[in-house]
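Possible regression after last week's pipeline update?

I re-ran a chain I had predicted before the update to compare outputs. Posting the input and the new output here so someone can diff against the archived version. Not blocking, just want to make sure nothing changed silently.
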Amino acid sequence: MTSTPQPDQRAIGRRLTVEIWIVLGLSLGRSGIYAVVDIVARLTAGPPLAQQTATLNASQSPRPYLDLTYQLLSIGFALVPVALALFLLSAHGRSAVRRIGLDAVRPLRDLGIGVGLAAVIGIPGLGLYALGRMLGITVQVQASALNAAWWTIPVLVLAALQNALLEEVVAVAYLMERLRDLRWRTPLILAASALLRGSYHLYQGFGPFIGNAVMGLVFAEYYRRRRRILPLVVAHMLLDVVAFVGYALVPAAWRSALGLS
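New output (post-update):
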């Protein structure tokens, strides 16, 4: 009678490590590397950071329906790494959605917590952005540069949802679950998630890097304690909806007076 060979823990660890690099290389890790290159380019370009601009949600075509097509394709393909992370976490038949708390078993409570987290993060975040602009370590961020069309606000809402799912599922739930599988210590897991979040915002300057790293620590600690990612998705989506849609709706003259455009 032959015995079933036991899995080699070191081989499992190497496989999980490679898996993490692949997932990050297809998503936020790639964005982080580009952001590092971008901030170096900004610092060596000549003008101070305070005189430079970063544009989010830019139009991709002057033709409205072609622009809409590009926007929807961009949002859809950006969600593929989310599907990959959920697929990998669902090995052995376990539901990844339930494992990371992305299910809707308590929608009202998750919504309430998400709103509270958005307020806790968003209000200080605005102050940190203003401080960064005053100190000259943050670029001017244009949250929306889409051409005005009937679909502009729905697309901005979808972009906010895409950002929330990508960042919270990959940078928090997936990464923390996998690092826990690799038996990393809790402080290192929290730091890795927070630094990853900060890294891909570095193209906006050092202020957003610090602010998003702090946000990453708060979100990672919440997930560590509660093992539910849906409130973080709600909070992140609300923050982005306010930023994207609010920016698009505020008149250009008001944005200029506030130093936002």
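Follow-up from reviewer: compared with the archived run. The mean pLDDT is 92. Marking as no regression found.
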